[in-house]
């Protein structure tokens, strides 16, 4: 859920009270589609790992909200990797100058420079998208000094799908 809240910080206590606010979105597209939910959770986890607690960062917050909104509108294979690259850069760990194969340099630059809302025009290259995302994951984990759970969840779902695949084909042949 994405919302804006009014908080009251008391002068006599360390506690904070919510005194108002409004919900901006609950991202129904993300909630209804596992293929979009997983990259959205990955973006949230990257933000949680690299942003210090109780340290406001409006730019990083807007970047996360933009990524979630783009994913809510539809699945794009580049959003998760582009978000990670932009977030790493905002956190001071930019990968822009990382050497990539010559055939992928233009795409690498586009992921850094294009707004997240403009990624749908990029060519679909699943293997390249996966490789770029693994680079992002490796760097987030290195700077956070702990593994990302989203990585393990995605792998376990792939394994499950591979095991289930023959059974599903057999069931559909019977129907």
Please state the overall shape, judged from the principal axes of the Cα atoms.
Answer: globular
- Gyration radius (Cα, Å) is 19 Å
Total number of strands: 2
Uncertain stretches = none
Average pLDDT value? Answer: 90
Task: Record the strand order, biggest sheet.
Answer: 1-2
Q: What is the string of helix and strand elements?
A: EEHHHHHHH
SSE class: mainly alpha
For the biggest sheet, the summary is:
2 strands, antiparallel
Number of helices: 7
Helix content: 55-70%
The percentage of residues in β strands lies in: 5-15%
Query: What gap, in angstroms, lies between the N and C termini?
Result: 40 Å
What does this structure look like?
This protein is mainly α. It has helices spanning 28-31, 34-50, 58-73, 79-90, 105-113, 126-144, 149-174, and strands at 2-9, 16-25. The chain has a two-stranded antiparallel ribbon with strand order 1-2. Helix 2 packs antiparallel against helix 7 (149-174). The model has no long low-confidence stretch (mean pLDDT 90).
Helix and strand topology:
Layout: E1 2-9, E2 16-25, H1 28-31, H2 34-50, H3 58-73, H4 79-90, H5 105-113, H6 126-144, H7 149-174
Antiparallel strand pairs: 1-2
Give the tags.
single chain, 175 residues, mainly alpha, two-stranded antiparallel ribbon
Brief synopsis:
The chain is mostly helical and 175 residues long.
């Amino acid at each position: 859920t994405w919302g804006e809240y009014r908080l009251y910080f008391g002068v006599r206590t360390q506690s904070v009270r919510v005194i108002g606010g409004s919900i901006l979105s609950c991202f129904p597209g993300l909630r209804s589609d596992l293929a979009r939910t997983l990259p959205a959770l990955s973006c949230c986890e990257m933000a949680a790992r690299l942003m210090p607690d109780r340290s406001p960062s409006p730019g990083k917050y807007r970047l996360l909200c933009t990524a979630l909104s783009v994913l809510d509108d539809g699945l794009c294979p580049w959003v998760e990797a582009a978000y990670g690259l932009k977030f790493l850069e905002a956190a001071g760990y930019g990968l822009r100058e990382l050497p990539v194969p010559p055939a992928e340099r233009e795409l690498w630059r586009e992921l850094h420079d294009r707004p997240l809302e403009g990624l749908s025009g990029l060519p679909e290259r699943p293997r390249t998208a996966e490789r770029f995302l693994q680079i992002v994951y490796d760097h987030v984990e290195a700077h956070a000094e702990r593994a990302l759970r989203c990585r393990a969840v995605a792998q376990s779902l792939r394994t499950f799908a591979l095991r289930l695949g023959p059974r599903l084909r057999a069931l559909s042949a019977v129907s």
